[in-house]
Amino acid sequence: MLFKRRKEPCLRERLRVALWPRRSIGRSLRYFGKRVLRLRATPHSIAAGFACGIFAAFIPLLGIHIAVALAIAWLIGGNIAAAVIGTTLGNPVILPFIWAATLEVGRFVLSGSLSGEPLPPHLGSMLRHLDLIVLWQPLIKPMLIGAVPLGLVTALLIYFPVRWTVASFQHRRQKAYFRLEKAIEPT
């Protein structure tokens, strides 16, 4: 193959690149931004799909983010590709902050006060055994409840700037295309 590596990266190297890209996280974010801008759909569809992906990234259950984003995007008429790209917000670097925020908001919604009861002292052993029935009350239930308002607010805050950016990008691209077409026309 023309672009195949001579030596395949080991598992440790693949994990390192997944957590911290070779060329920096900023470059990866710019790449995803350009991918969203270049999608061929209406600005509303792209922004709605991206917002669905952002909302799904707040759900604390790993492995279902993309499925939830696709389902919501399909239901509201959002762009499916933009929804998948939007789920990249939930990367391993940002997920602990999202989970902490959803837990605190969920505990506030459930208890009605900011000074909630502390987490159980044996939470580490509960997480080690991953017994969902035992984890439901102190951890999963508040995180699911807290994910909804945080996800909705973040999705709404993201929707409008993405829609405006995509619309202006598409308008500039269309103007450049018509200028080029006029220059090529025979007179």
From TrEMBL:
<feature type="transmembrane region" description="Helical">
    <location>
        <begin position="64"/>
        <end position="86"/>
    </location>
</feature>
<dbReference type="Pfam" id="PF09835">
    <property type="entry name" value="DUF2062"/>
</dbReference>
<keyword id="KW-0812">Transmembrane</keyword>
<feature type="transmembrane region" description="Helical">
    <location>
        <begin position="134"/>
        <end position="162"/>
    </location>
</feature>
<keyword id="KW-0472">Membrane</keyword>
<keyword id="KW-1133">Transmembrane helix</keyword>
<dbReference type="InterPro" id="IPR018639">
    <property type="entry name" value="DUF2062"/>
</dbReference>
<protein>
    <submittedName>
        <fullName>DUF2062 domain-containing protein</fullName>
    </submittedName>
</protein>
<feature type="domain" description="DUF2062">
    <location>
        <begin position="27"/>
        <end position="174"/>
    </location>
</feature>
